[in-house]
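Design a sequence for this backbone.
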């Protein structure tokens, strides 16, 4: 059984920084990509940042230049460094792992979500 455990959310003032972390646990042979999505109240879930096993990255236009995604391969862990935070970044942030290869068929997994609130 694969689990994604997220940490690092919280309340921060505009212009501040937060670092989210997501660790995938279980007997994992490989992960195609890991990333972060977010969902604000009344809005659909959207991609924030994604990092593939080949080190390709995708960022939402709204976070380019402010957010950075990185990975610790040996720990199946991905981090999201968020700088210059804005009130519109307020959302529940979800970790995602794509095509996780275990002893069973590859599948995607989601974390439970962590709240990020940007407010003065």
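Sequence:
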């Amino acid at each position: 059984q694969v689990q994604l455990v997220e940490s690092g959310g919280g309340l921060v003032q505009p212009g501040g920084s937060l670092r989210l972390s997501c660790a995938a646990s279980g007997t994992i042979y490989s992960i195609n990509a890991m990333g972060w999505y977010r969902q604000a109240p009344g809005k659909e879930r959207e991609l924030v940042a994604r990092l593939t096993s080949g080190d390709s990255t995708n960022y939402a236009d709204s976070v380019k230049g402010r957010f950075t995604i990185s990975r610790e391969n040996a720990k199946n862990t991905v981090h999201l460094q968020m700088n210059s935070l804005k009130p519109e970044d307020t959302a529940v942030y979800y970790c995602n792992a794509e095509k996780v290869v275990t002893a069973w068929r590859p599948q995607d997994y989601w974390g439970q979500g962590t709240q990020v609130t940007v407010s003065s």
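The chain has a mean pLDDT of 95.
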